[in-house]
Design goal:
The protein is an alpha+beta fold and about 600 residues long. About 50% of the residues lie in helices and about 10% in strands. Bound molecules: NADPH dihydro-nicotinamide-adenine-dinucleotide phosphate.
Length: about 600
């Protein structure tokens, strides 16, 4: 059964009335319960309440109301200013206390609103008590006071603590204002204990932590051999000096530092991430594209100055082990720091209480050093930009080793295709903020390993392979591969953009033609176009591209297809994880979607 369309959408910022008062605050809609017909909203300090539709108004309506009330003193909009009040209660007070009213006129309409977690709500709490509570309260927000005629209701029915901002007004205590202070019993958001363990639980993640680095090194050793056949297992363990070099370690550290400096440059816009559990949003500077361009300039200058980038190829194993050491050190640092993380910043998936499991999954959701977000940085910068740099170094190494004047078409295709993917990812950097990695996963060994070791050293395996395994391509093959990558990219980009725009504003002209299934949360699920073709068209596009990246390496060995095999495994697993969460979130609407779109990734197959 289709749900009736809701007036306010999940994620929308609206003005919500504080129960028992006529004060409106900025809130975010979390969901809508069609049975009780109530919206769950979150206030800026993390308080969640259920409100009736009549207690919510859109920002535009609210602002219009506010403007009207200033120009027409008799407006009955909830946004009316104090001066325009006509409530009987206010009239009495006004006439009986002229002096106080004059003092109030001097004060600016700005209050500091604190939703204080207080154990014992007393109406006549003294100021000092308030002060004490407030010292512990970090969630303070300044909002414009929107007082209306039934202000007096707050004295008895309010459940919040209003306090005049210290740097506003004449600073004199106003008797009436302090009387209005009442308290609310708000529990701070507690961390969810992880009970549903993924990746085979403790034992599974323990072996993953041991085996994943070994697997990456084994892949590189195999890839660099003359005969890269899988039958060459077990591999000969290379001498220790071919695995470690302090100079290489220093270069990797410098690279990460250089990218961190670029990330800190005050260029690019600052955006807000998704609301956290406590209602706050973190700010992120979006300057990845600048970082990429600046890196390209620096690399260009280095090559012009005859810096030999094929050094990276010659010391590839050492680069990889250095990255693995940094991953381990960073993961330990993150885990130790997570001991001091606030409860609301613990990742829902990494708080089981088992050290090994939490170390792997990541305990803290958004570890930061001041405003520097370590997870966001690692997800987008050193590994991703490092990937294209390594590819370029392999291109130069191929020319050097094979005495070529120009790089081979196969190497150019691999470099070009993957560069497109990275540039696209960095260009749409902001969209990462809505992805599972940022919103749900903690930052621990799993993501640090993925970002700093797995991506730059295994995604480059086609280019690494081509240095010592040349593969000629016919013009037909070249054209077919370009077309294949183009189709994959089109599906991938269009599906991701459509969903992003739809989630932001379903009535945007770019997506308003799409059919959608409404859900009880207020969000809808697109059921036509690409999202009606398979349930994860973006994964399909990604996999088609992955195939186009591997095929230039020919069919002599399976090793260059590692990325494709990994990608399919990852996305099938990710799909299962995502569907589990969507089933929980959307219930019967998700089932309806699955019936309408039966295939997950591969039409007619899976
Ligand atoms: P998605 O971008 O597909 O996000 C899944 C979410 O989309 C769901 O949880 C749901 O969230 C929403 N959704 C699902 N179905 C619909 C629908 N029909 N209509 C509207 N919304 C829907 O997943 P990922 O974050 O995993 O992937 C993003 C991109 O990153 C993909 O292109 C993927 O291929 C790529 N990727 C690549 C990797 C690589 O190593 N190459 C690794 C990981 C990802 P809600 O309803 O809450 O909005």
């Amino acid at each position: 059964m289709r749900m009736p369309a809701t007036r306010f959408q999940t994620g929308e910022t609206v003005m919500g009335r504080w129960p028992g008062s006529n004060l409106y605050y900025e809130v975010k809609v979390l969901n809508y319960d069609s049975k009780s017909r109530l919206y769950t909203v979150i206030y800026k300090d993390g308080t969640e309440l259920e409100l009736k539709e009549s207690d919510i108004t859109s920002l535009i309506m609210f602002k219009q109301g506010s403007t009207r009330s200033r120009s027409r003193s008799r407006s009955r909009s909830p946004a009316r200013t104090r001066r325009s009040s006509r409530s009987p209660a206010r009239t009495t007070r006004r006439s009986s206390s002229r002096t106080v009213e004059m003092q109030r006129e001097k004060l600016k309409d700005v209050l500091e609103v604190r939703l204080t977690p207080v154990a014992i709500p007393h109406e006549n709490n003294s100021n000092s008590k308030h002060e004490k509570k407030e010292e512990n309260n970090t969630a303070t927000k300044v909002i414009e006071l929107q007082k209306t005629e039934t202000e007096s209701e707050n004295k008895t029915g309010g459940r919040y603590n209003l306090r005049r901002r210290k740097d506003q007004g004449d600073g004199k205590p106003v008797e009436e204002e302090t009387k209005e202070e009442t308290l609310v019993q708000v529990k701070p958001p507690a961390a969810v204990k992880t009970t549903d363990l993924e990746f085979g639980g403790r034992v599974g993640v323990f072996f993953m932590m041991l085996l994943l680095p070994v697997a990456v090194l084994a892949l590189l050793i195999l890839c660099g051999q003359k005969d890269a056949g899988l039958q060459n297992f077990p591999l000969q363990i290379p001498p220790l000096q071919s695995l470690w070099d302090w100079q290489v370690f220093g270069i990797v550290l410098l690279w990460i530092l250089f990218q961190a400096v670029l990330a800190l440059l005050p260029v690019g816009k600052v955006v807000e991430g998704m609301p956290l559990k406590n209602g706050e949003t973190l700010k992120y500077r979006i300057n990845g594209f600048y970082a990429l361009v600046l890196t390209a300039v620096v690399v260009g200058v280095a090559v012009y100055q005859e810096v030999d980038l094929s050094y990276i190829h010659a010391h590839f194993l050492q680069f990889c082990t250095s990255a693995l050491v940094i991953v381990t050190l960073l993961s330990i640092y993150l885990f130790v720091c997570s001991r001091w993380a606030s409860q609301s910043n613990l990742a829902p998936g990494g708080n089981s209480g088992c050290i090994i499991y939490d170390f792997f999954m990541g305990r803290e959701l958004n570890p930061r050093i001041k405003n520097f977000d370590i997870k966001f940085f690692c997800e987008m910068r050193p590994g991703l930009i490092g990937w294209v740099l390594i590819n370029f170094a392999m291109l130069l190494a191929e020319m050097k080793h094979q005495n070529l004047e120009n790089p081979s078409p196969a190497m150019l295709l691999v470099n070009g295709f993957q560069l497109l993917w990275v540039v696209d990812g960095i260009w749409h950097e902001e969209k990462l903020l809505t992805m599972m990695d940022i919103v749900y996963d903690g930052f621990g060994f799993m993501l640090t390993f993925g970002d700093l070791a797995f991506v730059p050293f295994t995604f480059t395996c086609q280019a690494y392979y081509l240095v010592s395994h040349p593969n000629d391509l016919s013009v037909f093959w070249i054209a077919s591969l370009i077309a294949m990558n183009g189709v994959g990219y089109y599906i991938f980009r269009k599906a991701n953009s459509q969903k992003f725009v739809f989630r932001k504003n379903p009535s945007d002209p770019a997506v308003s033609h799409l059919k959608a299934i409404p859900t009880a949360t207020g969000k809808s699920l697109i059921v036509s176009g690409l999202w009606g073709f398979v349930r994860h068209p973006n994964y399909l596009g990604d996999i088609i591209m992955g195939l186009a990246w591997s095929l230039p390496c020919g069919f002599n060995h399976a090793i260059p297809y590692f990325y494709l095999i990994y990608l399919i495994t990852l996305l099938v697993h990710r799909n299962a994880r995502d569907e589990r969460q969507c089933r929980k979130k959307y219930g019967s609407a998700w089932e309806e979607y699955c019936k309408a779109v039966p295939y997950r990734i591969f039409p007619g197959i899976y």
